[in-house]
């Protein structure tokens, strides 16, 4: 389903080359002023047009169809759309029946048959993270009002790791890393991949501060379940881990357990945060931390082996179109957006 | 919420020391014969009583309250319960107000206050994976009827990795690894942890074969979202990755993309399976593979730092009760169960 | 689905003659004391054993399996069961393939095939309103704490109408009418129907007081939608109307519209309550009133025309078993229970 | 919530005077050709511009934003919008703080406060039945492909009852009655109400033919629950009854029960259809019949008593704006649409 949420309802519509793409967000209280400039700045972090991204130019300006009166929520569902302007369906005509490896072309063909939208990935396009960012950008504002901040960075791109502490340090530039040096190396890795007709992935780290203890719940209503369920909605995500994640499999309980203590104001804190701020699916008041694995963009210029679904023959194909050699920088705000939706929904559930 | 599912509805009830624990499974077609012996065998894989597990003895025999007539589903919701027999709430009396590090005691205290069930982890207990296994055990039978198999193993415990190929090889014994040698080393690691009053975690690998291409869907209805959402319902899970997962962040697109080809019967296959059988959230017909990080059991005998929520003082505490030094072996069937629920639900959604 | 609720999750399990029937109620805050005697009194209003009801004897004592610790909610799902004791499946053996007119036997046979539970109506039995009353009885207590009362009466049975004002007057006896005279006539109508081997229906009126204005929502989240959706879960309900209901179709707008005014405390009230306390799906603070049409019990002793699904022949059949000549009195608490579930869920949704 | 559906997801967005109103429909299979002319004809039945309706002129032409490629569903969510053109928010400026009796103005003020959309009823406007009709119009086409027809008529307006049989006879003209004479009298009743500055309600009858036995389910998943839940989403609906509905409360079981028989083709039929084609919440294969009570339009020209929420004073007010003296004719396609959504969803649930 294209929908998410238990207390709020969030749904995305649109395809890569449909007239519009957009989203509906239900369950937001009336009377909330949305800062549209702030929202646009958030959208711009995801928007294409950077050196390392696709040459498809889309301004990605949300237009609000309903739910806002004078920039303030009125209690009705908020629907916003983005017009698709720079579409070039012809780029895809030769691929209609030859699925691109690593893409959803083949599985879409099986599931939807010949009626599927064959241009630009249809509903599976990374472009659909734009409406995700509209909702996320709105909810980040509402969470901030209540003292919560959501920030993510590129922890690594290819084999280059960002070297500074996070979220203590600020993002340094277009590449969302905190170390300027690491960012420079990451850009090199991306450029090298592009020049080789190849692509590269990375890991995104996200930290949510200010969540009061008690948010979330046991079993399937846990924060991990909710965040994972939202984050896997971003194309190219292949893994997620909380706190020390996979590393926790290799250490002892005495090392992993976070000791409790009372801080000076009498609040319960933990000395370490190996659990990533979540115990039993519920926030413990420490920062919520998680990392997301992003696979390399499947659209690469190199010739690849595939099949022709019409003729039944194995073929060699090349992907045209305009593509990012690395999606990680643009996926960073999408991860923040997904986290915002999950956290807002969990808190609203009480 | 203690519920899961879009097409089916699965919910769990009970606490570690409540009179009964159980589950309700709605949406299963009428006329399905459930092999109760087979189900019991599945339950036994999770049940305590092994050398490496807690000394709490529970036979874990499900009793069917409704939904089965003569062992056959009648179309009504299936409810089964397990009686809690070997409860010793007194083991926990000293811990009522001193949260165990790494456990949900503190977050439960914040969320539910003094009315929370304070014995044995209450509703956060790993014991609640028993009802998960009832549902999973039933659905594994139904999936098998349609050619699907779900198998998991301990890929690693602590720093010991299982050495053989999977699922090509069978599990060799009580420790669910394929290499008898690895299993032996794993058991040593567990015993050493126990003797040190400590615990150890591990990684579980799960492989689902026979899923026809087309199951799943885009966005939040993807197989990754659904499986992650179910698997994080198992206590102690801190991460999940599909296919090459976090490794995919370090490799090139040309390496990651799985080339398509027609096999001899004219079926579309991929030469590699780096995507773990899922493209765009939808099964591509190859085995679905994922790995789950299990943290070390938080209940350890070593003294730990914690807080006394009543007195407001920092304290040193030790955990009594009966605990597993490593939960990984017993979590293996729970992961299979969660996978079965997610896959069955996704396929039923069409 | 056997489930109801957006903010809470309520689900029913069991069949007429399964070992147990029961319910799970999720989403109730921790720390609520449940008065079990009060609950039993509520259950007894639905229980059989009155002069006008079936001779099947069931004490209908709920046993709490989980969710209560010392009679207080602990935040975990509340599950309670009732054991089926006085089952006589043999009463139904001759009917296995001959559907009783007015019952769900035929539609169950189509939907579930031969595997359906053929005894006593299976999951379609009116007996399943017992678990509904467990949940309703609990929620009525929680609503009362917040100043809300839910009361229903038999407004009519057959052609006999209850003559007094409601809810101003109290129920006078076993027949839940406010006029002792009307109650006497109703009992006569029921006895006459029984002696003729026939049955009779009626109308139940329900009034909910104390609901603060603002509960509910527009469109499909309206109070009418929610209440109707719960009430039609009671077998034999064939209609529901709010406020003046069907009568409103015959009057003018100037007659139907309820004029607003400020009362002495400065609260907004309406002079009349033709809308039944609901405007735009949202409570306006006046009593919420609705009426429910209950069809005559389909189980009658008179010979009836039916079909033999095995032989393909038209047949004349008679219904054995133990049946109520009028279900209305026992359906009154079931309607209150359904209303409680709907109102509690709507209020919890904010 | 503005959303409906278990198998499909349908949601409505927009306010009376927002830039656009629209809907999203998820879960429709790919490859379905939508006849847009047929859809527009359906929309026109609801559109204003008839003698008896508001003078607000809106062409109500749906524009498809996503989900259709060349007029064929592609498997992605279908989103369509309608631009609001003839808005006159100034008509409502004097009413901002004086709630119109019978409208949701007061309850909206309580629920959403000052931020609510105060013009034209905001999200509570009957105008939102236009997007309902987009979804309904599409689903009616898909149901028709499978042999199902949904037809409704004005059974009565005020005290005038339509005299002919239905659905055997066709609608005779703008007033959706089968008797031309009744339609004429209905129009008179409406004109008389308008000339008196008043309004009038009515009853809509809906018949769904061709639904195979087995659709629907027990308890809260019954066809009555589903249809009622959708139909109460239409503003002004105050009651719903199935089959003989409230009349069934006055008759005997022997009269109410529909005797089964085998017809000449060996299909099970019932001699009467008092249950309205539904037994135990499940279709029995006979026509599904229900009636809906529509209250008189609350917007009337006559002076009315209300309150000034700002000043705290009781006031006399008159409603300006452009209004229908009777909404029943335009509500007929809305009822068909709601029925289509409910039935399609129930069938898709299996």
Question: Percent of residues of chain A in beta strands?
Answer: 15-25%
How would you characterize the largest beta sheet of chain A?
A: 5 strands, antiparallel
List segments of chain A where confidence is low: pLDDT < 50 over at least 5 consecutive residues. Answer: none
Which architecture of chain A would the CATH scheme give at its second level? 4-Layer Sandwich
CATH class of chain A: Alpha Beta
Q: Write the CATH homologous superfamily of chain A.
A: Chorismate synthase AroC
Question: From the helix content, strand content and strand pairing of chain A, which structural class follows?
Answer: alpha+beta
Tally of helical runs of chain A: 7
How many DSSP E strands of chain A? 18
What is the percent of helical residues of chain A?
10-25%
Quaternary form: homotetramer
The helix/strand order of chain A is EEEHEEEEHHEEHEHEHEEEEEEEH
Give the radius of gyration of chain A.
21 Å
The chain-level mean pLDDT of chain A equals: 94
Termini separation of chain A comes to 24 Å
Spatial order of the strands forming the largest sheet of chain A: 1-2-3-7-4
**Largest interface (C-beta under 8 Å):** A-B, 104 and 104 residues
- The overall number of domains of chain A is 1
């Amino acid at each position: 389903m294209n929908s998410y949420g238990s207390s709020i309802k969030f749904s995305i519509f649109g395809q890569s080359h449909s007239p519009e793409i957009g989203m509906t967000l239900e369950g937001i209280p009336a009377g909330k002023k949305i800062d549209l400039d702030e929202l646009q700045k958030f959208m711009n972090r995801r928007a294409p047009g950077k050196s390392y991204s696709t040459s498809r130019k889309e301004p990605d300006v949300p237009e609000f169809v309903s739910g806002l009166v004078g920039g303030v929520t009125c209690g009705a569902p908020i629907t916003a759309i983005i017009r698709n302007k720079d579409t070039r369906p012809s780029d895809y005509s030769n691929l209609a029946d030859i699925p691109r490896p690593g893409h959803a072309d083949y599985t879409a063909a099986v599931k939807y048959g010949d009626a599927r939208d064959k241009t630009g990935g249809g509903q599976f396009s990374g472009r659909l993270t734009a409406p995700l960012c509209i909702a996320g950008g709105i909810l980040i504002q509402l969470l901030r009002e209540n003292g919560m901040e959501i920030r993510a960075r590129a922890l690594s791109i290819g084999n280059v790791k960002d070297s500074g502490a996070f979220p203590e340090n600020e993002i340094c530039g277009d590449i969302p890393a905190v170390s300027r040096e690491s960012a420079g190396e990451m850009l090199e890795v991306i450029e090298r991949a592009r020049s080789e007709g190849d692509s590269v992935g990375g890991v995104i780290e996200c930290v949510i501060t200010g969540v009061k203890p008690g948010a979330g719940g046991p079993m399937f209503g846990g924060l991990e379940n909710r965040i994972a369920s939202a984050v896997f909605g971003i194309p190219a995500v292949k893994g997620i881990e909380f706190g020390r994640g996979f590393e926790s499999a290799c250490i002892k309980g005495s090392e992993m357990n976070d000791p409790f203590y009372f801080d000076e104001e009498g609040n319960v804190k933990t000395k370490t945060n190996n659990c990533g701020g979540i115990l039993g699916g519920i926030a413990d008041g420490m920062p919520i931390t998680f990392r997301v694995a992003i696979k390399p963009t499947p659209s690469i210029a190199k010739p690849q082996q595939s099949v022709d679904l019409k003729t039944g023959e194995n073929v060699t194909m090349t992907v045209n179109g305009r593509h990012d050699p690395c999606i990680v920088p643009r996926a960073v705000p999408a991860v923040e957006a997904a986290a915002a939706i999950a956290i807002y929904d969990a808190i609203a559930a009480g």
